[in-house]
Specification:
The chain is α+β, with helices and mostly antiparallel strands. 17% of the residues lie in helices and 39% in strands. The mean pLDDT is 90.
Length: 285
C-alpha cells in the first residue's frame, strides 16, 4: 500500500486541518504516516525514529511554515522522498500551496501531475580532537553564532584547504541558494535562485566592513575553526538543532550528495512566491 507522509506544525489550526486531510487520504485507500513537528533544541538527537520508507512513501505533505518544513526535511533524512509545503497564514518561501488549496493540490499530486525540483543541501561535519562527533545535513544553512554575552568571534575560514580570512564578526552563515532567503538575507546577503549552483558565505555584523558575502562554487569544501579565546559559540543547523563548539573543533561544510526533492505544481513559479513574500511590485510604475 502506498504511504503518504504528513508532517504537521504543533498548532491547533494545522492539527485540525491535518485530521480532515488524513481522513480524506485514508478514504482513498492510502496509508498515512503522521508526525508532529519537532521543537528546536540545543543539543543533537541522533536516535530519532522516522518511520520513513522511501520505497513505499509517495510524498510528504508539510503543514506549517518554513520552520516546520526545515524540521520535516530533517525527519526524512537522506531519503529521496518528494515534499510539498502547505503554508498557514502568510506565504512562506518553502510553501508551494496555501491552506485553502490543500485538497485540490493533493488530488493533483495523487494524479502524478507534478514535477520534482532538486534543492541542494549541505553536509556538515564537526571534528573534535580529531574524531568525528557530529554529522548533519541542512537545507538552508549552518550558522556559527556567538552567545548573548560573547565578544566578537574570530572565525578562521579556509576554502579547499586554502586560507581565506579570519572573520571578526558576530558570526558566520554558510548557506545553500535555498537558504539565501532566510537568515542570510537578513544579514545582507543576496537572493540566489535555488537552481544556481553555489554556496554562500555570509559574515554577521563583521567588524571589517569590507568583509562581504562570498559565493563559492558548489563543489567547494569549507573549513572553519575558531580563535583560541573563543567562548560561548554555538553552531546551529537549519535553526532546528545546535551545539556549543570549542576552539579545538574543526567544522567541514560541503555539498551533500543527497538533494531534497521538492514538488512543483503546474502554474506555480518561484518568482511569484518571491515577489509576494518580499512585497515587490508586480508591474511597471
Amino acid at each position: 500500500m502506498k504511504q503518504i507522509g504528513l508532517f504537521v506544525k504543533q498548532d491547533s489550526a494545522a492539527q485540525k486541518t491535518a485530521d480532515a486531510f488524513e481522513k480524506w487520504l485514508e478514504e482513498k485507500g492510502l496509508a498515512v504516516i503522521r508526525q508532529n513537528a519537532f521543537q528546536p533544541q540545543l543539543g543533537l538527537q541522533t536516535d530519532r525514529e522516522t518511520g520513513v520508507d522511501p520505497e513505499t512513501m509517495l510524498c510528504v505533505f508539510v503543514l506549517g511554515g518554513d520552520g516546520t518544513f526545515l524540521s520535516a526535511s530533517r525527519w526524512i533524512g537522506e531519503a529521496s522522498i518528494p515534499m510539498i509545503g502547505v503554508k498557514f497564514g502568510d506565504i512562506g518561501f518553502l510553501a508551494e500551496i496555501a491552506e485553502d488549496s490543500l485538497f485540490t493540490a493533493a488530488q493533483t499530486v495523487l494524479d502524478r501531475d507534478f514535477e520534482v525540483e532538486s534543492r541542494s543541501r549541505l553536509k556538515v561535519r564537526i571534528f573534535r580532537q580529531g574524531r568525528l562527533c557530529v554529522e548533519e545535513t541542512v537545507l538552508n544553512d549552518v550558522v556559527i553564532n556567538k552567545g548573548a554575552l560573547a565578544r566578537l568571534a574570530n572565525i578562521e575560514t579556509c576554502i579547499d584547504d586554502h586560507y581565506l580570512t579570519t572573520y571578526r564578526s558576530d558570526g558566520l552563515i554558510v548557506s545553500t541558494p535555498t537558504g539565501s532567503t532566510a537568515y542570510c538575507l537578513a544579514a545582507g546577503g543576496p537572493v540566489v535562485h535555488p537552481a544556481v549552483e553555489g554556496i554562500l558565505v555570509t559574515p554577521i555584523c563583521p567588524f571589517t566592513l569590507t568583509n562581504r558575502v562570498l559565493i563559492v562554487p558548489a563543489m567547494s569544501r569549507i573549513q572553519i575553526r575558531l580563535g583560541e579565546k573563543a567562548a560561548d559559540i554555538v553552531a546551529t543547523f537549519d535553526g532546528q538543532q545546535g551545539l556549543e563548539i570549542a576552539p579545538t573543533d574543526t567544522i567541514l561544510i560541503e555539498k551533500s550528495p543527497s538533494p531534497l526533492k521538492l514538488i512543483k505544481l503546474p502554474g506555480h513559479n518561484y518568482f511569484d512566491i518571491l515577489k509576494a513574500k518580499l512585497r515587490w511590485s508586480g508591474g511597471r510604475i
